[in-house]
Amino acid sequence: MVRANMVMAVAALAASLIACSPSGASSNPAASVAGPQFPAAVASLDDVEGTWQVVSFGGYEPARVTHPQPAAFANFTQSGVGLRIGCNWSGAPGTVRDGHFAAPAGEVDAQAQTAMGCGKEREDRDSRYFAFFRESPTMELLNADRLKLQAGNTVLILQRPEAIRRETLPDMADMAGEWRAEGLMLINEEGRRGIGLSELQARIAITGGSLAMTSCPASTVAIEYTADGRLARVGGADAAQINAQCGTFDEAGFGMPDLKPTRLADLLAGSPKVYYGGPDRLTLQSGDLVLDLTREPCTMLNQSDDHKRTWTSDC
């Protein structure tokens, strides 16, 4: 599963709208309610607005793991497209029209980007991905959730994150057991912010019928695992009851405005969505709250005072 990355995205985001009107009514009732025909050229931002996860780019395929904020994505908005393919964030100005992402005419300077060092291979891939959108690639919807862009011989395949989430949902048996809380994020129109939870000793316990914190039996929420991948609350404790009975949720000892460990109660009782990242990674989302969980041990990297020796230890 993708770890929450607290580096702020530096991205310009995408595009103007060009209306696409129906060609006319049909006398056949079945035809009048028929859905769109695919593949279809993208007519306007209306067709693609929002976030898409990278499936493949020029032969490279990122890990097919899911998270409310994918590590490799293209986010089309009114002003262009925000971009990341696993290392740095950037973007490209442009508009979506007439089956293309139309970059501005003439010479365009490279856009601002974050400057994390990720090794030559990943940094070179960043550069190719960011430059791809300056080549005015064609845009074609393969179906309602899958998008193809092409510039020259380079092909980019994108898919809606929600479609990938549903395709990769785990069985309850894959989730059952105890999970260590790794981080809690608040994601809304103002962006995202998060806190680490490595110091929280309690674990999140999931069974076929309950979701709870191991440190507080009163936190037990009765759940049903739904077909659309939610741990839907069907009884048991609500958020107010959990906070009233389980004050130890704040044992991590830090937070920020609107985001403290006590907000775990809102998530536990909020019928969270499941995002599966493999046997050791799971993310739960309820509203604007996102909780990253892991089964991996918590370790810290230590360094000697003279900076000559490093070692790991348990958190």
From TrEMBL:
<keyword id="KW-0732">Signal</keyword>
<dbReference type="InterPro" id="IPR038670">
    <property type="entry name" value="HslJ-like_sf"/>
</dbReference>
<feature type="signal peptide">
    <location>
        <begin position="1"/>
        <end position="25"/>
    </location>
</feature>
<protein>
    <submittedName>
        <fullName>META domain-containing protein</fullName>
    </submittedName>
</protein>
